[in-house]
Amino acid sequence: MGRMTEPTAEDIAARIRPAMTKLYVMYFRIAEQSDLTGPQLSIMARLKSNGPSRISQIAREEGIRMPTASNALHQLEQRELVERIRDEQDRRGVRVQLTRLGESELERVGEERTKYLAEMLGALSEEDLAQVSEMTDIINKLADNYGADLIDTSNG
């Protein structure tokens, strides 16, 4: 009768939230030495994986409003990291794509941030690192699926 119940999502969230907040703040304090914001990098990464996209599509997939997406893209365009091109299917439409400079900047910042995160993880023992390694697929699955769920429900 004394069988323990499995922890709920709420139990796990309560245990991990303070540490995630602390790590998030520390990570971005270091990462913000880049002059690109998190949202700008997220948009650039999405353009790299999706190819040329309409602003409305970017806004929807990023879970942001059109003016916010438009403003972020304008800032990136000013720095020649993205460019507008005519939509081949609809000549009146415009798509946005990464420039060569945008791709190399995305890669550079990505490598930089991977290095910072590796330094943080380097503070763990080999045993702890092995456990974190086992969790990476689950963390990536959560990141991929959670955002998609939010976007899907907001459309209906």
Automatic annotation (TrEMBL):
Domain HTH marR-type: 1-144
Pfam families found in the cross-reference section: MarR (PF01047)
Top-rank taxon: Bacteria
An MF annotation (GO) of this entry: DNA binding
Keyword Transcription regulation: yes
Keywords (A to Z) from UniProt: DNA-binding, Transcription, Transcription regulation
InterPro entries linked to this entry: HTH_MarR-typ, Tscrpt_reg_MarR-type_CS, WH-like_DNA-bd_sf, WH_DNA-bd_sf
SMART domains linked to this entry: HTH_MARR (SM00347)
Name of the protein this chain belongs to: DNA-binding transcriptional regulator, MarR family
Organism: Corynebacterium pollutisoli
